[in-house]
Design goal:
Layout: E1 13-17, H1 22-33, E2 38-41, H2 57-61, E3 64-69, H3 80-93, E4 98-104, H4 110-118, E5 123-129, H5 142-147, E6 149-152, E7 158-159, H6 164-176, E8 183-187, E9 193-194, H7 195-206, E10 211-214, H8 217-226, H9 232-241, H10 251-256, H11 263-272
Parallel strand pairs: 1-2, 1-3, 3-4, 4-5, 5-8, 6-10
Antiparallel strand pairs: 7-9
Helix pairs in contact: 1-6, 3-4, 7-11
Length: 278
């Protein structure tokens, strides 16, 4: 059971690990809008933070009482739970009292990292998210969308894509409101959609044809090898195929009291930014 500490000091700084990433960047921005000091935890931060160099953890944690914990590349990767556990203990020893962990819906391997964080002695919150909308304009699928073809081994499986702004709003609430201590929230968007549906929404938003092309697992793994990417990414698509997340969850409504953003709204806003123009 989590031991609840006194409310955190609003003037103390929050360490946002991955503060230049999809969710971390938004969390940092939203905290700053509230007037809360933020330190970015990244290899380019000052001081630098690197998951693989534990010697960087102490300087990054100095003067910190809250931490948003994101792990790159994924909590399900080998060694992640051990690193998250060791970092959580180091954070508590350095004076941090609240840790909020970004985890993944349906990722059984990520549960070990959650457990290690929960026994650290900190007040904790776990936020489990579905696949991000922003994977299509900020990350994995940006170039395929620009090229007009998304080739993936997902067949007609469905996913409840969630927007990173919704994730960030939930995380900020968890970092700043004692009501979320000791809670695990699962987040999804408002509807289940397939990658063919995604392609249709992107086509509508961009005004040009973007096709979804189903490929086999072996074909996709070959593409990963050719591009020097970890084979574990293919394993993540296997979790979509087995249907474990083929249902909606309501963490966004539970925490924020509003509906999550729909993929169509995200696609329209992203298209208006010009990110997919070719």
């Amino acid at each position: 059971m989590t031991q609840t500490h006194a409310s955190t000091d609003d003037s103390a700084a929050t360490l946002v690990i991955g503060g230049n990433g999809k969710t971390g960047r938004r969390v940092a921005q939203k905290l700053r809008v509230q007037g809360r000091p933020v330190r970015i935890g990244s290899r380019t931060g000052a001081p630098a933070f690197d998951w693989n160099v534990p010697g960087t953890w102490g300087p990054a944690l100095e003067g910190i009482d809250r931490v948003y914990v994101t792990y790159h590349p994924d909590l399900g990767f080998p060694g992640a739970a051990e690193q998250v556990g060791a970092f959580s203990e180091a954070a508590v020893a350095a004076g941090a009292v609240r840790l909020v962990l970004l985890s993944g819906r349906g990722e059984e391997a990520a549960r070990r990292a959650e457990e290690r964080l929960e026994v650290s002695g900190a007040d904790w919150t776990v936020v489990r998210a579905s696949w991000f909308n922003q994977n299509f304009d900020e990350d994995f699928f940006l170039e395929p969308v620009r090229a007009g073809e998304i080739a993936l081994p997902t067949a007609d499986a469905v996913e409840a894509f969630v927007d990173t702004d919704d994730i960030a709003d939930v995380v900020v609430a968890a970092l700043t409101d004692d009501r979320h201590i000791g809670r695990t929230y699962e987040l999804s968007g408002p509807r289940l959609i397939s990658f063919a549906d995604v392609a249709a929404e992107l086509s509508k938003a961009t005004g040009r044809e973007i096709a979804y092309v189903p490929v086999s697992d072996a074909e996709y793994r070959a593409v990963l090898r050719e591009n020097g990417l970890p084979q574990e990414f293919a394993d993540l698509f296997g979790q979509i195929l087995d249907g474990r997340n083929a249902h909606l969850v309501h963490g966004v409504e539970e925490v924020l009291g509003r509906k999550p953003k729909d993929f169509a709204d995200y696609a329209r806003e992203a298209a208006a930014s010009g990110v997919w123009e070719v």
